[in-house]
């Protein structure tokens, strides 16, 4: 299709995510992608410095994953997963149990990050119900983001994202954002355990990096302290590794950096290498066992039409194989080093503050008259970078770089250079 026709039909019929259609920039018409690059229908090449919303792991159109998808599609494309099983799902669940923090042996598959979180929250609530001591209170962090469905929104921070729905969301106990100092988070958790500990059904965190809430980074010791409190009180800890999973923070999972095994762990985004939607909620045997009963009401009544889609499972298996190769570990370390150099150069700029890094995720704030997600400086930087062939999508005044693992040092240096040139522009 010609670019003009494509964009005209898009403008007429398509409703894009997180997009104010009035005044929105024309969407980038992408024809194909390879490695770290997007190629547009009008002949431009764009560096994908945000891994297409944090999903593209190794690179775009990785041949090993594409081949696995093609082969699986011709063998078994889909089958009901209640009452049936198949090798791609069984192998994937076995592999996830093998690579996950020790003790997470049971895997429930769903469609995306939000559903992986919904499932974890429902499992935690029903766990208490099944034990005959119902509990309803979930504790979650300030500035958290756990997805866009109602349960996931409820445990997420109340923000511009949720404002229209706030009255419909269930209440949670809020713990201070640990990126602003872990001691306050732990004190608040201790106080909560003291006053409402017997109501508390679960604690949910994004381990080490609060993603959509502003790439706020926090420390392993605080994560360990939260996990210890949960363990001591036998309250399930839910680790939402939807963004941090599959090597983003260095090791396969952020929990590994702290030596923590949560009771429930949510993964999605990078799980298929960024090819297909798939979510997974991992649980301990102890939690799973409370669902075993002769009373059928203790069943987890949850499932999606496409649960354990064989093609998505095959993509995930192919991606995991690549992820475990020594070359991928080396690539992640190389990107971390390149980030460190790029951030060090930017940190000296008077308009830059809060430079920070966890594994392959780098972030910083840009001084601007407005703060937060609606700050215009982010959109201005996005437009500036695009004109120079780099895809960035800052969270308001927070800019981050989160590239696919194949991104070269030169390409990443170019992305940092584009940011530096934006900052040096005369301000309007
Ligand atoms: C993106 C994200 C989600 C939601 O995942 P979707 O696939 O967009 O539904 C949940 N939790 C975290 C930490 C995320 O970054």
Structural classification: alpha/beta
Please name the CATH topology of the largest domain.
Answer: Aspartate Aminotransferase, domain 2
The total count of helices amounts to 14
The ordered H/E elements are HEEEHHHEHEHEHEEEHEHEEHHHEEHEEH
Give the proportion of residues in helices. 25-40%
The gross shape turns out to be globular
Rg from alpha-carbon coordinates:
22 Å
Main sheet strand line-up: 4-12-11-10-7-5-6
What share of residues are in beta strands?
A: 15-25%
Strand segment count: 16
Subcellular location: Cytoplasm
Function: Catalyzes the transfer of the alpha-amino group from S-adenosyl-L-methionine (SAM) to 7-keto-8-aminopelargonic acid (KAPA) to form 7,8-diaminopelargonic acid (DAPA). It is the only aminotransferase known to utilize SAM as an amino donor.
Protein name: Adenosylmethionine-8-amino-7-oxononanoate aminotransferase
EC number: 2.6.1.62
Summarize the structure.
With 428 residues, the chain is an alpha/beta fold. The protein has helices at residues 3-13, 51-54, 63-75, 87-99, 113-130, 150-155, 182-196, 220-233, 254-258, 285-289, 310-323, 326-347, 376-387, 409-424; strands at 30-34, 37-40, 45-48, 104-110, 137-141, 173-175, 200-205, 209-210, 216-217, 237-240, 264-267, 279-284, 352-358, 361-366, 390-391, 398-401.
């Amino acid at each position: 299709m010609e670019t003009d026709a494509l964009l005209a039909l898009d403008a007429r019929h398509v409703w894009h995510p997180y997009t104010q259609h009035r005044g929105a920039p024309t969407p980038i018409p992408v024809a194909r992608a390879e490695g770290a690059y997007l190629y547009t229908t009008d002949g431009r090449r764009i560096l994908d410095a945000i891994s297409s919303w944090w999903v593209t792991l190794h690179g775009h159109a990785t041949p090993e994953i594409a081949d696995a998808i093609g082969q699986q599609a011709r063998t078994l494309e889909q089958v009901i997963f209640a009452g049936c099983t198949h090798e791609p799902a069984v192998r994937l669940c076995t592999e996830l149990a093998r690579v996950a923090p020790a003790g997470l042996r049971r895997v429930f598959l769903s469609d995306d990050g939000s559903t992986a979180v919904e499932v974890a929250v429902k499992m935690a609530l029903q766990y208490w119900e099944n034990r005959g001591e119902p509990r309803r209170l979930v504790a979650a962090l300030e500035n958290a983001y756990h997805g866009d469905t109602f349960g996931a929104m409820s445990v997420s921070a109340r923000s511009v994202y949720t404002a229209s729905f706030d009255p419909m969301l269930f209440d949670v106990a809020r713990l201070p954002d640990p990126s602003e100092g872990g001691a306050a988070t732990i004190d608040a958790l201790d106080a909560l355990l003291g006053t409402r500990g017997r109501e508390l059904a679960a604690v949910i965190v994004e381990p080490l990096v609060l993603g959509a809430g502003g790439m706020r980074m926090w420390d392993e010791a605080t994560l360990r302290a939260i996990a210890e409190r949960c363990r001591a009180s036998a309250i399930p800890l839910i680790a939402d590794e939807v963004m941090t999973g599959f090597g983003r923070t260095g090791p396969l999972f952020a929990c590994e950096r702290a030596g923590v095994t949560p009771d429930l762990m949510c993964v999605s985004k990078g799980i298929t290498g960024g090819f297909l939607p798939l979510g997974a909620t991992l649980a301990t045997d102890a939690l799973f066992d409370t669902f075993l009963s002769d009373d059928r009401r203790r069943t987890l009544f949850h499932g999606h039409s496409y649960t354990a889609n064989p093609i998505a499972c095959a993509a995930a298996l192919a991606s995991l194989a690549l992820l475990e190769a020594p070359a991928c570990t080396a690539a992640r370390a190389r990107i971390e080093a390149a980030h460190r150099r790029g951030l060090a150069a930017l940190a000296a700029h008077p308009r830059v503050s809060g430079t920070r890094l966890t594994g392959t995720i780098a972030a910083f704030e840009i001084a601007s008259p407005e703060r937060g997600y609606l700050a215009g400086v982010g959109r201005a930087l996005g437009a500036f970078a695009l004109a120079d062939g780099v895809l960035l999508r800052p969270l308001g005044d927070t800019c981050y770089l989160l590239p696919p693992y194949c991104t070269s040092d030169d390409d990443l240096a170019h992305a940092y250079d584009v940011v530096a040139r934006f900052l040096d522009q005369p301000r309007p």
